[in-house]
Specification:
By secondary structure, this protein is an alpha/beta fold. Helix content is 24%, strand content 16%. The protein is built from eleven helices and 14 strands. The strands form three sheets. A seven-stranded parallel beta sheet has the order 5-4-3-2-1-7-6. Helix 4 runs parallel beside helix 5.
Length: 438
């Protein structure tokens, strides 16, 4: 029986690493003073802007078009199930009310606690909420450089960092995720990360941590690439919609809805999540291309989202650790859930489709979001032929073919025209050139 169509997940139960891995899709929001300078979130560092000069940006930070409700509505329309918001990036400007510094949004021109607004908006919509917070801080002295150079400075720097994270944990309880970043220049021992996590958990016992304070955390967070940890554990790929996290006026390299669907398929067949970033402009408004892509993907998820929801780990030619990505079809990637196999037809085959290597009998075939189209199935050994498909792709973003099988499906192909009856490599008999010694 096919899974239900894409829908929101319950936000009332405690989030665990296992239920986190079922969220599948979330919205990352990078916003701060750096957004005013339209050159990305590292601009203070990359342009060596002096702290006193950078601090003056707070007088221009009106955030007049920052709308937490609009951002969370966009996340819901996009089919996302959680939001992670940058409470403080490496520049040290805090988007919340704090007793520890006057360098914050409440004492800037905007006079607002933007973090409180995001937390409240997410909760009203049943979205899980995560707080991003940098351990690094370029604004205050002693900073990380001084902490490296002098033992006394290090003690002050580390203690102030612990005070910040504890204040966040107290102020915005409960939240679901504490998303560390900016852990330069120390490892877990240097940051005293065990104590840091325990301090937060004293206030929020059920919170989940990523692994960016030097500890493994409750889930892995590869940045800018898609790949599950080995051995597998709960994980999330964080990717930005163009090539910049914070707003960059010169970056127009927007990913297409089809590229986002490909990423969702990749994380789905490795039981991971996609945390997709938008960077609002300095005034808080969302670049229109970001909204357009997210809305298109959200509409696709409502039509075809079952192919990336509640999925199983799935690769082609799985033998020990030699499994290949599941996009070895000429037409697009596969995902699987129970006895259901899905082929995301990124390259439409026309009236006939052939799938080789299928290690299960197909009972029924149907294009998702389509009325029964009377396809004809022919299966001989491991070769499946599907005839009478529509001549043109029936979905503007990515058509999905659903195959209901008699057992959990497997696909196995080798470099030969049939599977050898003796022990054999599934594909490459030699290690990668990149791994060979000179």
């Amino acid at each position: 029986m096919a899974p239900a169509r894409w829908s929101a997940l319950s936000s009332s139960a405690v989030l665990t690493p296992e239920s986190f891995s079922q969220l599948r899709y979330g919205l990352f929001v990078h916003y701060g003073l750096y957004s005013l300078l339209v050159s990305g979130e590292w601009v203070m560092n990359r342009q060596r802007i002096a702290p006193d000069e950078y601090r003056q940006l707070a007088d221009r930070f009106t955030a007049e078009h920052f709308d937490a409700d609009q951002l969370c509505d966009l996340a819901v329309s996009a089919g996302m199930r959680y939001v992670v918001f940058t409470t403080m990036h490496h520049d040290g400007f805090r988007l919340y009310d704090t007793e520890l510094s006057d360098f914050n949004s409440v004492r800037s021109a905007c006079r607002r606690d933007l973090t409180a607004e995001m937390v409240a908006a997410a909760r009203r919509r049943g979205l899980r909420i995560g707080l991003y917070h940098s351990l690094n801080n370029w604004m205050e002295q002693p900073d990380g450089v001084a902490a490296l150079e002098q033992a006394d400075a290090r003690q002050v720097f580390i203690e102030r960092t612990h005070q910040r994270v504890e204040e966040l944990a107290r102020r915005y309880s409960p939240v679901d995720i504490f998303w560390y970043d900016g852990w330069w220049p120390f490892n877990a021992d240097g940051w005293q990360s065990q104590r840091m996590n325990q301090t937060i958990r004293n206030h929020q016992p059920h919170i989940l941590f990523n692994g960016r304070n030097g500890l493994a955390g409750d889930f892995a967070t590869p940045e800018g690439h898609l790949g599950a940890p080995d051995p597998w554990r709960s994980w999330e790929a964080c990717i930005t919609l163009n090539n910049s996290w914070g707003y960059h006026a010169g970056d127009h390299d927007w990913k297409s809805p089809q590229q986002v669907v490909d990423m969702l398929a990749t994380v789905a067949n490795q039981r991971g999540n996609l945390l997709l970033n938008v960077g609002p402009r300095g005034d808080g408004s969302i670049p229109q291309p970001s909204s357009d892509v997210l809305m298109a993907v959200g509409q696709w998820l409502r039509r075809c989202g079952q192919c990336v929801d509640n999925t199983d780990c799935f690769t082609v030619g799985l033998q020990e650790r030699n499994g290949h990505r599941s996009d070895w079809s000429h037409h697009g990637p596969f995902t699987a859930s129970g006895n259901n196999l899905y082929l995301l037809l990124r390259r439409w085959p026309g009236r006939q489709l052939v799938i080789a290597g299928l290690q299960a009998r197909v009972l029924r075939a149907q294009m998702l979001a389509e009325q029964p189209c009377g396809v004809k199935l022919t299966q001989m050994d491991d070769k499946l032929t599907i005839d009478h498909l529509p001549e043109l792709p029936p979905d503007p973003v990515c058509p999905v073919l659903h195959l209901e099988c008699d057992r959990p499906p497997e696909l196995y192909l080798t470099g030969g025209m049939r599977i050898p009856r003796v022990a054999h490599p599934p594909y490459d008999p030699c290690p990668s050139d990149l791994l060979r010694p000179l």
